[in-house]
């Protein structure tokens, strides 16, 4: 299933709230937590990470993966944590409203 517009950033921030991760780990975390129902395109993820790094929501450093490969590890900043809280609340409320509408039954 494709991601809803405007949700990738908050989902990436949620993944990073569990600890620093590189791009493949973020994608795997999101796909695992969704039970395989969500797919994240590599290009979209990289654009989101660069956008959030420019906004100081995430910070990044180079590191080495378990497979001894060099990778950029991203971590949540305090501003990113605050943004995650605010946007998560809005998104959950929005999804709840949609669910209420879509599951409505005739009287």
Structural shape: globular
Tally of extended strands?
Answer: 3
Cα-to-Cα separation, first versus last residue: 32 Å
Relative helix content: 40-55%
Largest sheet: 3 strands, antiparallel
The parts where pLDDT drops under 50 for at least 5 residues are: none
Work out the strand percent: 5-15%
Question: What are the key terms here?
Answer:
4 helices; three-stranded antiparallel β-sheet; 107 residues
Task: Tell me what the structure shows.
This protein has helices at 8-16, 23-33, 42-54, 78-102; strands at residues 21-22, 58-64, 70-76. Strands 1-3-2 form a 3-stranded antiparallel β-sheet. Helix 1 (8-16) crosses helix 2 (23-33). The model has no long low-confidence stretch (mean pLDDT 93). The chain is an alpha+beta fold and 107 residues long.
What's the arrangement of secondary structure elements?
Elements: H1 8-16, E1 21-22, H2 23-33, H3 42-54, E2 58-64, E3 70-76, H4 78-102
Antiparallel strand pairs: 1-3, 2-3
